[in-house]
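Problem 12. The chain below contains 128 residues. Write out its predicted structure in token notation.
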Amino acid sequence: QVQLVESGGGSVQAGGSLRLSCAASGRTFSRYVMGWFRRAPGKEREFVAAIAWSGGTTFYADSGKGRFTVFRDNAKNTVYLQMNSLEPEDTAVYYCAGKFSPVGMVYRFDDSDEYDYWGQGTQVTVSS
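Solution.
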């Protein structure tokens, strides 16, 4: 079992930055693929970013490329999402998700159904 707890959300103006954190319990965090998803009001949950075991492989949705960076510190059992140049369209509840993988990554890293563990979410609000 893995428990995930997000933090770092808040309210910022457009152009600002936030760093989200997701702290994981459990001894095998380093064997989990981690993803970030978000759900905006009235919209479906969507993929934001994913990171493999070692952090050497990352994927991003087009909406965040060049603005968002996902990275992890396995010694701290924590994955981060650095968000820069935030836009009002980034307003959403952000969730981290985890899936154990024996091979370092999962094929459908952008599919929320792929992940087994979820945090409670953290609200990000970007004002214009």
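Discussion. The longest strand covers residues 92-100. Students who got a different answer should revisit the alignment rule from Section 12.3.
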